[in-house]
């Protein structure tokens, strides 16, 4: 295949870039249009080529030794006559030799001058996390100053490529804003898709820039192509899904747990782990391992895991780092599925070699290792608290994971104070082995988990994560708090984990493409985790606000726009139906302002109508504390109406903002417990949560 | 003055726009450069003018009957020869008459062709809230698609105009990004400043567009000028500041309060008001007014306020709307300073006339009216709860106001649950008379108020507000929650209050220019109100994060960037000083990661160093719950160290994010009570609050 020959020749020559004609060959092979051109090795030939291509033309030096052609005086633009071309040929040659007398000159490229329509940039980079990533943006100020660019994983479908055109802020421009000629969207998308194919087929392409591409009503032509080459990234080895699932199931539902370093001494990690396992009510076998004890907390202790009579599914490590390796060998020989590696003192303290060593041992034995440098993990359906932190047993349907122990503790405290039921809380720490995609593979099929929330600072295998997330998202929301969002944040991530955090825009676009709901901050992640499993999925985009406080209605409307939601345009008949229930000076439309002094029946009638009318898909309630309808009266009423309508099949997400004196706190809690996501003193939070649910529902294809 | 003649002639002719030559005259009079040009009434004259101006030139039809010249075929661009100009003259004339055979043709303008440098737009509009407002942006896609534009009140100083150049997202472009020629910033700012003067001097200019203005290294030339004219907005009448202050002082510190409609019957508004006044501990005279009672709650009642023996400073109205007018006449005759108009049933229910009537009565008597349609007001230093809501008595230094009753109730509930001390809570409702600027005038000099937080949906007198806010901000933060931020939100505001809400970008830029701290949502406003008075003002931009949880450090860094703060670049000597206190595998730099297992002394040493070193201006702490340093140990330690360092003169804002089990809630409260703004389960909120404090400190000129 000639294209492979081009690449291999260039690499063999020790080059890190292709020449322009080589780049053009690549484009031709993939159906990417480039301007008419040819290589001239004499002024005569240049004149002849220009005549064939058609004036005006551009002349460019072609030399493997001259990368920055303009700096070398190697480019002339807009030559209109044969005379100009002849003169230009000689001038460029002289400039180039003056710039670098030793340059090997292959000739001078004669190229059609293009420049109509829109100037866009299409490119691809090799991202350390995600591999080949395609970039698209409008040329000039928009990309270079305003960073108006969007990214996708390569390869990508034509539809994904079309989506990129709409994903930039200046998307209107390509549709012909300001009377400009619209671009041929299909042609441009096809070009993007072909670049995706090109960089996927040829992993040696480290970077490619098609800049500018001129896109007009007829098509898209790449006026300049720059290709950087190098050795391809090593392939990431992945275990088969069945294998991951088998081991993860043994880890989350173990028949037996060994505690390496179990201790009877209060304050020791090995003691906390033992207490949490026993007091948490874990029903499987617990094997304390301690060379100096015969019995710990009423259970027979073993000198070594090798001495344990039965099988060991999980070994929880509660010993100093320096003792881990030999103990892990024994755990491996015992055939355990999981090593819960609590000890710190590995890569996070600079002990990279020590971490490599234990990874090698675990891999050799087929043991999956969680950590090191973690608090452990909880799995409430099995009453499993394999952690040295405080125990937690409120069962629920969200699984949370964190890369940092501090964030894990925040998850625990938040869960306890809000009574958030969880299926699992998992620390992943240094992620030397088990990564978020392994956990997603388990949670995907775990009947106890209805939503997943993950705090992460980096991804070891971005594509593995995207693949897993895409599968899970079809069934359950995946919420991600990606720390190190900003340039400064990323720098901090670097100093903390040694991981090279990718540029946030790449993460943002690709996580969105994977259907993940990204939380902007820690508290948002926690609130989404708490609320998403209890909200039913919406079936359409029509959101209606019903409010007793006009002031809340305005703020809720603001929040609706911020959350990317749509205030329903209420049809006349529905408007009339609402009006029948509210005072004449109340406002129908949307928000529906029932006004402040209304009795419970007005809330009931309007909310029931909102739930029953099938054109409405979600309700946002604004409550205003009055003597006529006190907070708990409102809460019980709404809980009852929502339950009654759900029983009739009118299942819709309902969120509420409660404005009032402190009784609204109890009312909000009551509503939450009854499936209505409610918050006091904020109009933003309930709507943000509804927005998160919608983002998932759209990604899962439930709204179309 | 010829300019006034131009305007008056155009208005006299019933025109709503000036002709291009008239617009040019305006520009010339104000030193705004326009291209060389002249009016030709024959092809010969056009040729002569073009020769004088210099080729290439532009030809444009001049006719009061043709506003859209291009549509009429009335513009030809880039004519390079005398021949072209002659032909062009005839062609335009023919096109124009074909477009509108009845058009009066004044001639054809011959204009220098400009087009070098950057294309920018300078304009002014008459905003319903703020009056003359100047707009600036970069031409083309940036303004029209990305809405990259910034606004200021006119007139404005040259410095403010320079600030506009930096306030657009694409600001770099004018500084010469991507190798372009930088614009002459002073010349462009001067042009903007002159437009500000022009529209201020000539109120009949409803709108002016200088579009495009070409700005290059030499200067700025307005290539096209469009001026719309009309009758000027009526002047807003304002009371003298001393007069406002005198009345407001009587309202907030009254010697006597009459309750119009006082009642002994529980559940009545007039009863709630009486109870709150008495039980709240108000020490002045309370006069119940009720035609049917002799005594209410142990106080002598009067048939009418006219019967009250002493002076009445404030009358609280607790009677239906229809009885208000005659009672207000009596209150006016009695010489009261304030009428607290609780009753609803005025403009908000469509009773605009009824509202006008009571405003007229109040104005006639010099009574300042709060409301109507409000919950009343609280002023804790006087133990004054003149409201029908629940009483509130926690004294503190923030004054809060709300335009909506629902938001007022949220303020009350939030205050109670967080023990937020307040100086005042004030409902402004329909704002028929007393507006935010009146309240600011009082709070400005009120020694009991150290910060002001205002929820508002509209401003009756935008300039009055800006003037008052600018004064107050020099001494105290002014926090504003502007509801109706978004297009959808603004629509809802319209339906709620009948007020025409301005475009949010205008509000946003002008509030910022006034030095106001804008809160993005209700909960943010409440948290800023609670936290800003207890945080000392920072003296510089160097923020340092000290964290026990690396994971929190990354999230706090993200939050720092989001909040517009600056992570200090730590000098080597300071870095070494911090390193001396933390484990070798901890990270110095910034964040300073002291690592998770550290004892209290590590927190103490590092925080003390952070407070003592004068190069550091603010601290953000990340706490991670461990057995070694439990939450309350951390809280007491930090409170003590902060107090000790403050006693030594090291007064700096300190905020903290606490990650841990539920004990961190109590620890956060303790810290808050001791002057450290602390929150559990969130890394965003403490930093957002610090960011708000910084925004104020910058506006107050404390950082420079």
UniProtKB/TrEMBL annotation, chains A, B:
This is Acetate--CoA ligase family protein. Pfam families: ATP-grasp_5, CoA_binding_2, Ligase_CoA_2, Succ_CoA_lig. SUPFAM superfamilies: Glutathione synthetase ATP-binding domain-like, NAD(P)-binding Rossmann-fold domains, Succinyl-CoA synthetase domains. Transmembrane segments: none annotated. The keyword Repressor does not apply. One of its GO terms (molecular function) is ligase activity. Residues 24-60 form the ATP-grasp domain.
């Amino acid at each position: 295949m000639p294209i492979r020959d081009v690449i291999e020749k260039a690499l063999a020559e020790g080059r890190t870039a292709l020449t322009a004609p080589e780049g053009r060959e690549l484009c031709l092979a993939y159906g990417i249009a480039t301007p008419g051109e040819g290589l001239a090795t004499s002024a005569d030939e240049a004149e002849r080529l220009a005549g064939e291509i058609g004036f005006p033309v551009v002349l460019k030096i072609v030399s493997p030794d001259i990368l920055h052609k303009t700096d070398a005086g190697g480019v002339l633009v807009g030559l209109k006559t044969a005379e100009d071309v002849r003169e230009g040929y000689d001038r460029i040659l002289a400039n180039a030799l003056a710039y670098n007398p030793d340059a090997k000159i292959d000739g001078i490229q004669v190229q059609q001058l293009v420049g109509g329509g829109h100037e866009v940039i299409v490119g691809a980079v090799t991202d350390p996390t995600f591999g080949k990533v395609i970039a698209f943006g409008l040329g000039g100020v928009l990309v270079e100053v305003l960073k108006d660019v969007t990214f996708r994983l390569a390869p990508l479908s034509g539809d994904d490529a079309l989506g990129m055109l709409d994903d930039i802020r200046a998307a209107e421009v390509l549709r012909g804003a300001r009377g400009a000629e619209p671009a041929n969207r299909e042609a441009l998308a096809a070009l993007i898709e072909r670049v995706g194919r090109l960089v996927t087929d040829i992993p040696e392409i480290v970077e490619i820039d098609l800049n500018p591409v001129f896109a007009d009503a007829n098509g898209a032509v790449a006026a300049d192509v720059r290709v950087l080459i190098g050795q391809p990234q090593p392939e990431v080895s992945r275990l088969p899904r069945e294998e991951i699932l088998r081991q993860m199931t043994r880890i989350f539902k173990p028949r037996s747990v060994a505690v390496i370093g179990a201790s009877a001494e209060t304050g020791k990690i090995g003691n906390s782990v033992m207490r949490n396992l026993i007091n948490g009510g874990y029903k499987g076998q617990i094997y304390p391992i301690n060379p100096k004890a015969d019995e710990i907390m009423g259970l027979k202790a073993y000198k070594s895991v090798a001495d344990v009579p039965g099988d060991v599914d999980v070994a929880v490590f509660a010993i100093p780092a320096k003792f881990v390796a030999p103990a892990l060998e024994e755990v491996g020989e015992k055939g355990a599925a999981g090593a819960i590696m609590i000890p710190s003192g590995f890569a996070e303290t600079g002990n990279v070699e020590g971490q490599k060593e234990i990874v090698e041992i675990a891999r050799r034995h087929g043991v999956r290792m969680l950590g090191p440098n973690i608090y452990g993990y909880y799995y409430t359906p099995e009453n499993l608290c394999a952690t040295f932190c405080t125990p937690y047993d409120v069962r629920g349907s969200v699984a949370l994971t964190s890369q940092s122990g501090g964030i894990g503790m925040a998850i625990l405290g938040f869960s306890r104070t809000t009574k958030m039921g969880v299926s699992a809380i998992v620390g992943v720490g240094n992620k030397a082995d088990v990564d978020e995609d392994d956990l997603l593979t388990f949670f995907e099929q775990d009947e106890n988990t209805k939503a997943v929330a993950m705090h992460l600072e980096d991804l070891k295998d971005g594509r593995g994560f995207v693949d897993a997330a895409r599968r899970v998202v079809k069934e359950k929301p995946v919420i991600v708090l990606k720390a190190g969002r900003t340039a400064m944040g990323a720098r901090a991530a670097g100093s903390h984990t040694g991981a090279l955090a990718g540029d946030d825009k790449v993460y943002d676009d690709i996580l969105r493409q994977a259907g993940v709901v990204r939380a902007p901050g820690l508290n948002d992640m926690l609130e989404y985790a708490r609320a998403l499993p209890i909200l039913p999925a919406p079936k359409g985009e029509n959101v209606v606000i019903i409010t007793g406080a006009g002031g809340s209605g305005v703020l809720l409307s603001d929040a609706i726009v911020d959350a990317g939601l749509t205030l329903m345009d209420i049809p006349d008949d529905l408007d009339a139906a609402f009006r029948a229930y509210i005072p004449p000076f109340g406002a129908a439309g949307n928000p529906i302002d029932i006004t402040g002094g209304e009795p419970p029946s007005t809330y009931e009638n309007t909310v029931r109508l909102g739930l029953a009318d099938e054109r409405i898909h979600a309700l946002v309630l604004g409550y205003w504390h009055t003597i006529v309808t006190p907070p708990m009266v409102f809460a019980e009423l709404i809980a009852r109406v929502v339950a009654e309508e759900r029983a009739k099949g009118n299942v819709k997400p309902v969120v509420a903002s409660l404005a009032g004196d402190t009784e609204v706190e109890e009312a909000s809690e009551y509503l939450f417990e009854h499936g209505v996501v409610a918050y006091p003193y904020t109009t933003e939070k309930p709507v943000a949560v509804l927005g998160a649910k919608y983002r998932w529902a759209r990604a899962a294809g439930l709204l179309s």
